[in-house]
Amino acid sequence: MLYVKPIGAIATLIAIVSLTYSHFIRADISFAQKPAEVKVSSTVLNPINEVESGSMIYTLSDQSQLTQMALDTKVQMNITGTINRVKLEQVFTNPSNDWVEGVYVFPLPSNSAVDHLDMIIGKRIIEGQIKERKEAKKIYNKAKQAGKKASLIEQQRPNIFTAKVANIGPGETVKIAIEYQQAVTIDNDKFSIRFPMTIGDRYIPGKRIKTSANATGMKPNTHRVNDASKITPPTEININRPIDISINLKAGFNASVVSSSYHDVVVVDTNNLTKHITLDRAKGNHQADRDFELVWQAESSLTPKLALFTQQKGSDHYLMLMATPPSDEVFKKANTPREVIFVIDSSGSMMGSSMSQASKALMQAVNRLKPTDRFNIIDFDSDFDPLFDSAMPAIKINKKHGVRFAKNLHSSGGTEPLDAIKFAFSSRDASSDNYLRQIIFLTDGQVGNEEEIFNTVRLNIDRDRLFTVGIGSAPNSHLMTKLSEFGKGAYTFIGDIAEVETKMTELFSKLESPALTNININFPTGINAEQALGSIPDLYKGEAITAVFKLNAIPNNLTISGNTSDGVFSDNISINASNNTVGIDTLWARRKIDQLMNKYQAQYRRIERDQVQQEITNLAIDAHLVSKFTSLVAVDITPSNTGDTALVTKVVSKAVKAAKTATNAQLWMLLGLALIVLSVVTRRRAKS
Hints:
By secondary structure, the protein is α+β, with helices and mostly antiparallel strands. 25% of the residues lie in helices and 34% in strands.
């Protein structure tokens, strides 16, 4: 009896600490504002978003019952040369007794061109049509209210899409098939494609603004991220989200090495030039909980230095070029001393293996610096903390400080990189002009205010170069690739701690080798050529020149030229127009839209923005592509929900395994509640 009250008091104390810890950890997941801004009423968003288990969730009309809705995913890829055509099938099955609307937020590659939608009901296939976004939404809502089955695909970010399916009957299954294509990535003689499987928990900065009561996201809109409720689907731990991936690889050469970076796969030779790759079913069901990456490589003597494809569509011609300059002729070790600024994320979303990867990568980077170089480290979470006030010489004592700084990094707080990036730019001094200034940004990129960050880099990059390193199982590839594009640098993805040394060594090789700059591709007289992205970014060792053109005719040759530290590099290339393929027009349109979106974001006057928006809309409709201003909509003309039954909205939440989540907030919450109960019980026993 003497120890009952102390035990109860201790239990209560631990409970309070547990709940407090849970609250602060969850702050980075659910809203993660500064304390003054974390005022989120449970009535702001749809009550279904308070549920924390299950894959598809909704409330009944009386708000008294919750249920689940299954979602299976199948992915079929057909890779031909440097183009990947993908079909993504998602099956919505309704096990309830209600007529429901399914809502699913899903990721796609940031360079994907989404151009096809099929809604499959039994044996009926309803093909989607591309429409201006507002018109598509009206068509969908009208069909939904009329009791017809309908589907709507909208882009929320270039790598985040929303699928809605209306009027799924009790026990009914509806299949949605989405098709897109993307260009294959070439880096260090390796060919690769990446398929994202989950959306990370995004930090949403800013003060809360009006958010629809029917919003399907976990976080309300804010004055800095006015669509937060559309890009933050519920996160569920240990839910079943099976995925099946099947790939036909026609590389155009005999790929000596084919592997998946983060999944077990089975590779079967179909013929000399074709391989069939599937997820290894002997390892059990595969879950959509981390990004999938496929990498293939030719024998060194067979690695192509040039991939060139042509296409004719009507009176227009298209040309896709991927070329690797001879490294020995173009790239040499830099003699110019470098000023390297490391900006590293230590927010709560980096907790666990991501923080370990980033810390290890940073230590390796610091140790590799030469005494003639200068460096600084800027650590950020809710605030930022630089190692030095400005860059310091990379002598032994300063490098020791840097390594110690990296070892002591601990993840906590919100993800606020903006001020850290601004400090990286503002910390230039007069002597910085004597150095090759490079900024390395290490993060999982799980933020919602990408446009703020893009604009800051675009306005302040000057002569600096920005390199991004994506850390973790599912980094924000849109943020990372776009920043490296604006910063004329390169993007490196590290999905496993075992890759840190190899991937960082490859990055260091790029950092230490002068780029091929001011790259031009010149065509013969009489050829009118429009490059989709407008210009070609700087090129680093191991990378390939990639460009897609729209032309009035296919020429017999072209010339690639650029500047190196030793002068001008030039190479003449012959073109074989018989190497005809399909899909280049779609890739050109997708990249052209990307360029126009940069122009749209850079406009401050409404009239100019409206003009660019219309240009994007027209191009997307002509190319039948989903964009910020266009959507795919499919409607079954036959009403299926003909009664007065109310339609219930159900939200598919994204799967995250407990071992890979940023925190164990739910565990701490349950522990806190359990200890409070234990405290009450022990106190009552003490009184008796």
